[in-house]
């Protein structure tokens, strides 16, 4: 078999071959398990840490706000616009960034993204006027654009579809991990280093949390091969087995794919927009935990900031459990659609039931924790779906477009919830809208994505990582 590699690192071949077959005998299941465990241990620790840093740098402005508004004389409206401009840059540049990745490779893309976002984060610590804040937040979004879809695409270069549920879950666990770490870390830096280097605490926060991103960007060049063919830590046999597994999977999935413009096929594929809508709804659910959990607790009569901060970590802990359990269950059963749809329905019911628990902190936190477990539990499974039906040519743009559609929710949802709450005087009315959106997305997921495009071979199911 003749194996080559595209510039982006994806395996390609002029011949098909049996799964696990290279120049030697077919790989056994035990051999495949050892191989993919080796790859995971080489790649995932770095990607996990990088995504934690990414998530922390994205939201640290919410903690800096507690001091920088007074120091700079900024209004709440100025802060709100500056914070939201991040998502404008992010959405505009996400698709181009991921398409460019296919030309220059994954490690160069990750290096570029991390170094730029690290330097821009550091620069944010030295803003003195609203216009500077607006520009830097927009540039931060543009710099970070493509990081998440880049990694999702990158994982398809290494792992077959049957293993991606648990692999993706291990990567996206960085989101709740960052949620647990970001608050205590930010307040500790601001309190401990206030006045250090002649800077305010919020300035030190941006500097200290921006530098690690830039350093990790440099490390990415040395730690992230573009694909299995470039991994010197794989033996020739392991490289061949990895490539042949993916070649066989891609050949089977995209046999008879029509020719034509990649952009045209991408923009006319209704499944891209179906997946985009589902991800938009998921992102809307995520935003409840990012922006409104403290408000819900305050409405329940919890006024102590330390108590609010402590209770707010419970949904994040639930999210960790949900990602691990749902990702493993999905891989074990080789089923994707209902592992997204059912948790979305349960999360919707939890949000809808919250008005019934307005007098109980215990029951409210229980519902929020279950909702987080369900809502975030869909994340790793959902991102195994688009690569299953997108071709090698449209995967980069398709994944980025779906991610961009979801990113719009990060800009829209907080504003919509705020407007509904202001108009009705009741936050729970807005949560009912989120609940309905999640349930509609569950139906769209099942009805809009045919099970035939997601069929995976049970022989490929992993017995372990």
TrEMBL record:
<feature type="transmembrane region" description="Helical">
    <location>
        <begin position="76"/>
        <end position="93"/>
    </location>
</feature>
<feature type="transmembrane region" description="Helical">
    <location>
        <begin position="338"/>
        <end position="356"/>
    </location>
</feature>
<dbReference type="InterPro" id="IPR020846">
    <property type="entry name" value="MFS_dom"/>
</dbReference>
<feature type="transmembrane region" description="Helical">
    <location>
        <begin position="362"/>
        <end position="382"/>
    </location>
</feature>
<keyword id="KW-0812">Transmembrane</keyword>
<dbReference type="GO" id="GO:0022857">
    <property type="term" value="F:transmembrane transporter activity"/>
</dbReference>
<feature type="transmembrane region" description="Helical">
    <location>
        <begin position="305"/>
        <end position="326"/>
    </location>
</feature>
<dbReference type="InterPro" id="IPR036259">
    <property type="entry name" value="MFS_trans_sf"/>
</dbReference>
<keyword id="KW-0813">Transport</keyword>
<feature type="domain" description="Major facilitator superfamily (MFS) profile">
    <location>
        <begin position="43"/>
        <end position="453"/>
    </location>
</feature>
<feature type="region of interest" description="Disordered">
    <location>
        <begin position="1"/>
        <end position="25"/>
    </location>
</feature>
<feature type="transmembrane region" description="Helical">
    <location>
        <begin position="135"/>
        <end position="159"/>
    </location>
</feature>
<keyword id="KW-1133">Transmembrane helix</keyword>
<feature type="transmembrane region" description="Helical">
    <location>
        <begin position="272"/>
        <end position="293"/>
    </location>
</feature>
<dbReference type="Pfam" id="PF07690">
    <property type="entry name" value="MFS_1"/>
</dbReference>
<protein>
    <submittedName>
        <fullName>D-galactonate transporter</fullName>
    </submittedName>
</protein>
<keyword id="KW-0472">Membrane</keyword>
<feature type="transmembrane region" description="Helical">
    <location>
        <begin position="202"/>
        <end position="224"/>
    </location>
</feature>
<feature type="transmembrane region" description="Helical">
    <location>
        <begin position="171"/>
        <end position="190"/>
    </location>
</feature>
<dbReference type="GO" id="GO:0005886">
    <property type="term" value="C:plasma membrane"/>
</dbReference>
<feature type="transmembrane region" description="Helical">
    <location>
        <begin position="39"/>
        <end position="56"/>
    </location>
</feature>
<feature type="transmembrane region" description="Helical">
    <location>
        <begin position="430"/>
        <end position="449"/>
    </location>
</feature>
<feature type="transmembrane region" description="Helical">
    <location>
        <begin position="389"/>
        <end position="410"/>
    </location>
</feature>
<feature type="transmembrane region" description="Helical">
    <location>
        <begin position="113"/>
        <end position="129"/>
    </location>
</feature>
<dbReference type="InterPro" id="IPR011701">
    <property type="entry name" value="MFS"/>
</dbReference>
């Amino acid at each position: 078999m003749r194996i080559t590699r595209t510039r982006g690192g994806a395996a390609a071949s002029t011949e098909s071959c049996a799964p696990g077959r290279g120049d030697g005998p077919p790989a056994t299941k035990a051999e495949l398990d050892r191989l993919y465990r080796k790859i995971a241990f080489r790649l995932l620790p770095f990607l996990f840490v990088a995504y934690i840093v990414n998530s922390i740098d994205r939201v640290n402005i919410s903690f800096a706000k507690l001091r920088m508004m007074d120091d700079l004389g900024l209004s709440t409206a100025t802060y709100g616009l500056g914070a939201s401009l991040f998502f404008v840059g992010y959405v505009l540049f996400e698709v181009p960034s991921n398409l460019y990745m296919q030309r220059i490779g994954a490690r160069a893309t990750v290096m570029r993204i991390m170094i730029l976002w690290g330097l821009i984060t550091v620069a944010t610590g030295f803003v003195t006027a609203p216009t500077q804040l607006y520009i830097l937040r927009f540039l931060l979004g543009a710099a970070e654009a493509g990081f998440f879809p880049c990694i999702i695409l990158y994982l398809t270069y290494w792992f077959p579809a049957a293993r991606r549920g648990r692999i993706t879950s291990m990567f996206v666990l960085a989101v709740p991990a960052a949620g647990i770490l970001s608050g205590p870390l930010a307040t500790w830096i601001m309190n401990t280093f206030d006045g250090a280097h002649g800077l305010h605490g919020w300035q030190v926060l941006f500097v200290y949390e921006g530098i690690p991103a830039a350093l990790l960007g440099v490390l990415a060049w040395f730690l992230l091969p573009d694909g299995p063919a470039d991994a010197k830590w794989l033996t020739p046999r392991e490289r061949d087995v990895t490539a042949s597994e993916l070649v066989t999977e891609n050949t089977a999935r995209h046999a008879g794919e029509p020719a034509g413009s990649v952009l045209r096929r991408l923009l006319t594929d209704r499944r891209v927009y179906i997946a985009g809508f589902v991800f938009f709804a998921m992102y809307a659910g995520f935003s409840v935990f990012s922006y409104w959990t403290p408000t819900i607790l305050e409405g329940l009569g919890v006024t102590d900031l330390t108590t609010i901060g402590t209770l707010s970590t419970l949904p994040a802990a639930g999210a960790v459990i949900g990602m691990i359990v749902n990702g493993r269950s999905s891989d074990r059963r080789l089923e994707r659609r209902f592992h997204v749809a059912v948790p979305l329905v349960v999360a919707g019911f939890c949000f809808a039931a919250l008005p019934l628990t307005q007098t109980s902190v215990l029951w409210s936190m229980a519902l929020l924790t279950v909702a987080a477990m369900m809502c975030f539990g869909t994340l790793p499974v959902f991102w195994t779906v688009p690569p299953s039906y997108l071709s090698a040519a449209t995967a980069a743009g398709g994944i980025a477009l779906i991610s961009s559609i979801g990113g719009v929710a990060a800009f829209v949802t907080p504003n919509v919830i705020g407007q509904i709450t202001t108009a009705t005087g009741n936050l729970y009315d807005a949560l009912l809208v989120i609940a309905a959106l999640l349930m509609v997305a569950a139906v769209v997921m099942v009805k809009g994505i045919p099970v035939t495009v997601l069929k995976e071979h049970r022989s490929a199911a992993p017995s372990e990582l």
